[in-house]
Design a protein that fits this description.
This protein has about 240 residues and is of the alpha/beta class. The protein has eight helices and eleven strands. The longest helix is centred in the middle third of the chain and has 25 residues.
Amino acid sequence: MTAKPAFKRVLLKLGGESLLGDREYGIDPKAALAVAEEIKSISDTGVQVSVSIGAGNIFRGISGAGNGIDRATADYMGMLATVMNALALQDAVEKIGVPSRVLSGLEMPAVAEPYIRRRAIRHLEKGRVVILAGGSGAPYFTTDTSAALRALEMGCEVILKATKVDGVYDKDPNKFPGAKKYQELGYMDALKERLEVMDTSAFALCMDNKLPIMVFNFFEKGNSKKAVMGEKIGTLVK
């Protein structure tokens, strides 16, 4: 008997760095294709997939503000960069036969549909991957926060937080070989230990609405499918 996925609808939170590959800046088509393969592995299970992507490979609003640009202006620049990443990711997933739609919190009808909650849900129901760009459409919110907001709006059952480490540790495992990994973690415990699973606003949204966050190593091939099938990988914050 074929195992059933543990979730019906998920949101995958990706950093823009996932598209870097071996580059220091910008988008590597090979890296985008590798990300697309992982997304396809989730979609092929029948799980409805939405993807929220950041822009750390191109421009970060906070770092821009730190360099003297007005914070609101810097955040809008960061949102524009997420649209570039979303289009690159859409190109990659469609090259491997996965239908997708880019929905943007910033209206730019020439390249993306505006984010409308019911439209996004309808795309998911039709088996399309929904790629979310443009953040929340408002400054002063990170892509973590907009991801949590969209996940709740669309009725996702979990946020899959893609990282380069295999879960949440009590210390940086790269610096401390004896660092303890958590299999499961309560929201309040994560806050008390200041583990920074997501930024404070995003984490508060998840905690208040009981939306679980699964932190896992996205870059180990096959982990994304394991995550949606309910296998014990990474750390589940709930």
